[in-house]
């Protein structure tokens, strides 16, 4: 282990497990939430509420307000991670199954390695191999019926690219400290989705009980808890392979939930694509952590 890397603490382990299972379940929760709630309205409520709850809690605990420079930096990263990253995926889930969306999003570490190459970090041969295998898997998934239902379904591929770029530059942009950054990310994204919903003419209709329960899950667990866990891990001197390992655990959790509880299916070529992506991501993040 590199002398600058920290040992995994119980808090770090809890954060990892939270990302594995809570974010793995978030794809099915997204699908259930937008079944009767407009995607932009759902995202505005989800992220805006999560951000406000976290901000209020931090202020009650005595956290100081961030500077304008820190707010601006946190706002930028929040737009990349949540508006471009999460928003594109949730919008596409109107046509794409939760399991397929999770697998495509799992390519995020491959894009992260790609962007890191241009930010001055050397790319190892095993990472290039991982990227090639992952992109081959994406090619196989592109033939899935879900992605042919509507051209807008292809927006699902924008999500991991935007999230990876935001993650790659997050350490180079001044941000609010710790959990306060999470709050600013989510409040800023919630405001952006409110504007997008108004411009798109989105309308509120009485949601089903299932959609409301899914929204509560997304606000509390996937929003406040898991997103804060992710930023905690980013702030720790841990191996990148460990921090990004959720990217190839989430699709397996989402696949199990989608197939077991929502009756989702993938073609044989799609299952081969899943295998290649998981293998590619595993090689890329393990090569980065050496």
Automatic annotation (TrEMBL):
GO annotation, cellular component aspect: membrane
Subcellular location, record wording: Membrane
Keywords: Membrane, Transmembrane, Transmembrane helix
Domain of life assignment: Bacteria
Principal location class: membrane
Domain (EamA) ranges: 15-141, 153-284
Mode of membrane association: Multi-pass membrane protein
Similarity comment: family membership: Belongs to the EamA transporter family.
Name the UniProt record assigns to this protein: Drug/metabolite exporter YedA
Organismal lineage: Bacteria, Thermotogati, Deinococcota, Deinococci, Thermales
């Amino acid at each position: 282990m590199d002398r600058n890397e920290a040992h995994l603490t119980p808090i770090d382990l809890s954060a990892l497990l939270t990302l594995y299972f809570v974010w793995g379940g978030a794809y099915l929760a997204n699908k259930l939430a937008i079944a009767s709630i407009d995607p932009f309205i759902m995202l505005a409520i989800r992220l805006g509420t999560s951000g406000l709850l976290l901000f209020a809690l931090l202020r009650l605990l005595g956290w100081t307000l961030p500077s304008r420079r820190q707010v601006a930096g946190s706002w930028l990263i929040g737009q990349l991670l949540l508006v471009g990253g999460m928003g594109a995926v949730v919008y596409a889930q109107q046509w794409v199954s939760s399991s397929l969306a999770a697998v495509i999003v799992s390519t995020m570490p491959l894009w992260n390695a790609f962007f890191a190459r241009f930010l001055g970090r050397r790319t190892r041969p095993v990472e290039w191999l991982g990227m090639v295998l992952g992109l081959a898997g994406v090619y196989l998934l592109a033939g899935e019926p879900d992605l042919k239902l509507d051209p807008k379904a292809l927006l699902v591929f924008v999500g991991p690219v935007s999230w990876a770029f935001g993650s790659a530059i997050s350490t180079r942009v001044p941000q609010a400290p710790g959990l306060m950054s999470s709050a600013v990310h989510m409040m800023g994204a919630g405001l952006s989705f409110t504007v997008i919903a108004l411009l798109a003419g989105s309308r509120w209709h009485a949601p089903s009980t299932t959609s409301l329960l899914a929204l509560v899950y997304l606000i509390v667990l996937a929003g406040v808890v898991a997103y804060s866990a992710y930023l905690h891990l980013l702030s720790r001197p841990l191996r990148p392979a460990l921090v990004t390992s959720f990217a190839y655990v989430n699709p397996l959790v989402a696949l199990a939930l989608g197939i077991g509880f929502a009756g989702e299916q993938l073609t044989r070529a799609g299952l081969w694509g899943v295998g290649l992506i998981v293998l590619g991501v595993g090689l890329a993040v393990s090569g980065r952590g050496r």
